[in-house]
Amino acid sequence: MQVTPELIRKYHLGQCSPEEENAVLQWLAGDGTDQVPSYLKGNERKAIQSRIWNALGDGQRHGEDSGKATRNTVCWKWSRIAAGVAMVAGLSWLAYDRLAMRKNAMQIAPIHYQEIRAAFGEKKKFYLPDSSLVYLNAGSHLRFPDHFTDTSRNVQLTGEAFFEISKDPSRPFTIHTQNTETRVLGTVFNLKAYPGELTELVVTEGKVRFGKAQKQVVLTANQMASFDVVSGELSNRNVYAGAYAGWKQNRLVFRDNRLSEIAVILERWYRIDIEIRGPGLERVIFTGTYENPSLQTILHDMSSAMKFTYTQQGKQLIIQ
Fold it and tell me: For the CA atoms of 247, 200, 229, 183, what is the dihedral angle to 10 degrees?
């Protein structure tokens, strides 16, 4: 029977059959042509060293009548084992040292950042280094590292994005905006954080912690939170999450929005400049849902409902 590293390991653990144990003992009393398995290290090496001593001791007691030749064989055998153990110890230390050097190199490896932008009139879809999926709305940008660390995943958002975060309990995912911080482990949600506007988070799936400093809330599916940087107010309520991420499929949804709010959205979507001149028009409210609409379709409906006229010259739109 051939003595393999697996067989030596079984012998060390006391799991050998009588036949296998006999083969190992014969190997110990052999002529030294085999080599000590290179995997032996640490406590395993010490334990098998003890078993080898015992085996060799037994061999000496049973072979006393065979004279000097047997003693010489045993002594030579142990010299071979000792040399092998010393060699394994050296190789183990070398491997450990190289592993430590590699780990240190990884820890101090510089992190490079990249930024993806969606200009006015466009949207983007892409994956982060951890395979999280991101949809970026018009007029938005996301900054993130080329690789995340072993303990955290951090990105910076300006604008609006829909996230499908890969689950990784050991590395929380944090989105930093100008005024808030959103922290998750693995979930699906929409975050809107355009400068000068309310920061709004709507959760589709999972659990999300949202807020700023000591003022935070934990949200679950079909809940929404808003942060007003002017007043510092953080509020939350129940909503239908599906109504807040329709922009991914080119769906425009207005829910009692003022014309001033709608104008900002239309500027991002259609890359135009809108000027509202009619007195009081900015505060007029409009509700409507559109599937992949043209600008003219929206303007026609709004002008009829809100009683205004408009003129357009190139990228300039005047409402009055």
Answer: -120
Averaged pLDDT, 194-204: 96
Residue 143 forms beta bridges with which residues?
115, 156
Count Cα atoms within 13 angstroms, Cβ side, for 41. 12
Amino acid at 35: Q
pLDDT at 32 over 80: no
CA distance 143 to 44: 49
In degrees, to the nearest 5, what angle opens at C-alpha 170 toward C-alphas 168 and 175?
65
Pick the CATH number of 113-244 from 3.40.710.10, 2.60.120.1440, 2.170.190.11, 3.40.50.1240: 2.60.120.1440
What is the pLDDT of the chain when averaged over all its residues? 81
Q: Is the CATH number 3.55.50.30 carried by domain 250-319?
A: yes
Q: Residue 185: pLDDT band by 50, 70, 90 thresholds?
A: confident
What does pTM read for this prediction?
0.65
Residue length, the chain? Answer: 320
Amino acid sitting at position 165: I
Residue 238 · residue 223 · CB < 8 Å: yes
Determine whether 13 is exposed, middle or buried from the number of CB atoms within 10 Å of its CB (0-12, 13-18, 19+): exposed
Ranges assigned E (strand) in the chain: 113-118, 124-127, 133-136, 140-145, 153-164, 173-176, 181-184, 188-193, 199-205, 207-212, 215-220, 223-227, 234-238, 251-258, 273-276, 285-291, 310-313, 316-319
| Residue 198 confidence (pLDDT) above 60 | yes
Q: How far apart are CA 80 and CA 319, in angstroms?
A: 95
Three-state DSSP at 197 gives coil
Of the two residues 17 and 182, the one the predictor is more confident about is 182
Question: CA angle, 82 as apex, 71 and 86 as ends, to 5°?
Answer: 170
Tokens 């394994």, residue located: 88
